[in-house]
Design brief:
alpha/beta; four-stranded antiparallel sheet; 13 strands
Length: 361
C-alpha cells in the first residue's frame, strides 16, 4: 500500500502566475476565463449582515445550483472555487491503495493531490499526433481492480477540445463494465443539463463563477454528486474553511439569478475573440491553432526557437503579455492563449506578440 506523502510537489501553474509573472504583465491573455467583472457590476445592500454562512453553502444558493442540474439541494456543496471542491472530494474519496486515472496535458491538481493522499495515479497522455483525442482502449487497459476514479475536464483545459458523441458512448460503456466513478471539471459548460451528473450514474461534477461568468475573485464554486459524498465533504470543510464568505454567496445569488445574461456575454466575447484570433494565427508561421470547442482560450502549437516556457518568459519580459506555457500542464511546445477579452485589449496583446515573433524569426 502506497503511503501518503507529507509534502506535495510545487504547483507549477500557480508558481508561474503568482511568483514569476505577478506584476510583470499589463495584458493578460493567460488567465483562462473571460474578462472579469468589477464590483460596480453587482448590487450591494448596505444592510446585508456579515454573519457566518452555512457550512454546505447558503440554502437558497444550493437550491438554485441544484435546479440547474435537476438535482436536490442535499446533493450540492458550495465551496471556495471549484478547486476547493475538487480538493475536498479527493480527500474524502481517495487514499492509500486506490488507483486513479487522469490525463495530460491537464490540471496538475488532478494527479498531484491524489498522489499526495497515497493513491497510485496513471496519467494517460492525449497525443498531439492524434489531435489530443482520448484513446479509450488505452483507458480500458489501464483500469485495475482498485481503480476508484477517472478524472476528466470537459471542455478540456488547456486544450479547448470537448467530448464527442462517441466519447460519451465510450465513457458510458466504461462505467457500465468497470463500475469506475467519474469526476468531470465542467468549468466551461454552459448547459448544466448536459453535465456528466445528469448523463452518467455514479458521476460527480464541479464548476464555479470564475470562467464563464467572469467573477474569479468571488472564489465561488460548487460540487454536485451523491449526498453521502457531499456530507463527507461538508465535514472536512468544517475542519478547513468552515463555510464560505456570506457576501460572496450573496453576490453569487445575483449572478446565477441572471445566469443567461452572463452566458450571453460569455458567448459574445468568445465568438468575437475567436473571429480575431483565427486569421491572426494563420499569419504566424511559428504557431498552429487547435480549434477551441466552446472555450474562451485556445491551445496553440509552438514551432519557434527554444521551449514554450522560454518563449512565454521572454514575451513577458519584453512585451509584458501573459500567456500560459505548455510546461505547466505537463506538455511541451505549445501555449494557451485566452481570447475572451474586449476587442481592443485582445488586438493590442496580439500586436505585441506579433512584433515579438517577428523579431524572433
Amino acid at each position: 500500500m502506497k503511503p501518503s506523502n507529507p509534502q506535495i510537489n510545487t504547483y507549477t501553474i500557480q508558481q508561474w502566475l503568482f511568483d514569476e509573472a505577478q506584476g510583470a504583465f499589463d495584458i493578460d491573455l493567460g488567465e483562462s476565463g473571460i474578462q472579469y467583472h468589477c464590483l460596480g457590476d453587482l448590487r450591494a445592500d448596505p444592510a446585508f449582515d456579515l454573519n457566518y454562512s452555512q457550512d454546505r453553502g447558503n440554502e437558497n444558493l444550493r437550491t438554485m445550483i441544484a435546479q440547474m442540474y435537476g438535482a436536490g439541494a442535499d446533493q450540492v456543496i458550495v465551496t471556495h472555487g471549484s478547486q476547493e471542491a475538487l480538493y475536498l472530494f479527493y480527500r474524502c474519496h481517495l487514499g492509500p491503495g486506490d488507483h486513479v486515472l487522469t490525463f495530460t496535458p491537464g490540471w496538475q491538481q488532478s494527479w498531484e493531490v491524489p498522489a499526495h493522499l497515497g493513491a497510485d495515479v496513471t496519467k494517460l497522455p492525449l497525443a498531439r499526433e492524434s489531435d489530443y483525442t482520448i484513446d479509450w482502449q488505452g483507458v480500458a487497459d489501464a483500469v485495475r481492480d482498485n481503480t476508484r476514479l477517472l478524472i476528466l475536464c470537459y471542455p478540456n483545459n488547456p486544450l479547448g477540445v470537448t467530448l464527442s458523441r462517441d466519447d460519451w458512448e465510450q465513457l458510458e460503456r466504461l462505467r457500465e463494465t468497470t463500475g469506475i466513478h467519474v469526476l468531470i471539471d465542467e468549468e466551461y459548460l454552459t448547459d448544466y443539463q448536459a453535465s456528466v451528473f445528469c448523463r452518467l450514474p455514479g458521476s460527480y461534477a464541479v464548476s464555479s463563477l470564475s470562467k464563464i461568468y467572469g467573477f474569479p475573485g468571488l472564489r465561488l464554486g460548487w460540487f454536485v454528486g451523491d449526498q453521502r459524498v457531499v456530507n463527507r465533504m461538508v465535514n472536512l470543510k468544517r475542519y478547513t474553511t468552515v463555510c464560505n464568505s456570506s457576501i460572496c454567496e450573496y453576490f453569487a445569488l445575483q449572478v446565477l439569478g441572471n445566469r443567461l445574461h452572463y452566458v450571453e456575454r460569455y458567448e459574445r466575447l468568445r465568438g468575437d475573440g475567436l473571429d480575431v484570433l483565427r486569421p491572426w494565427v494563420e499569419a504566424q508561421p511559428q504557431l498552429a491553432l487547435i480549434e477551441p470547442q466552446g472555450t474562451p482560450f485556445a491551445y496553440l502549437k509552438y514551432h519557434g526557437p527554444g521551449t514554450s516556457a522560454d518563449f512565454c518568459l521572454r514575451l513577458l519580459q519584453q512585451k509584458r503579455v501573459l500567456l500560459m506555457p505548455a510546461e505547466v500542464f505537463e506538455d511541451q511546445q505549445a501555449v494557451r492563449l485566452s481570447f475572451g477579452r474586449p476587442r481592443e485589449m485582445l488586438l493590442e496583446g496580439l500586436d505585441r506578440i506579433n512584433s515579438f515573433l517577428e523579431a524572433d524569426r
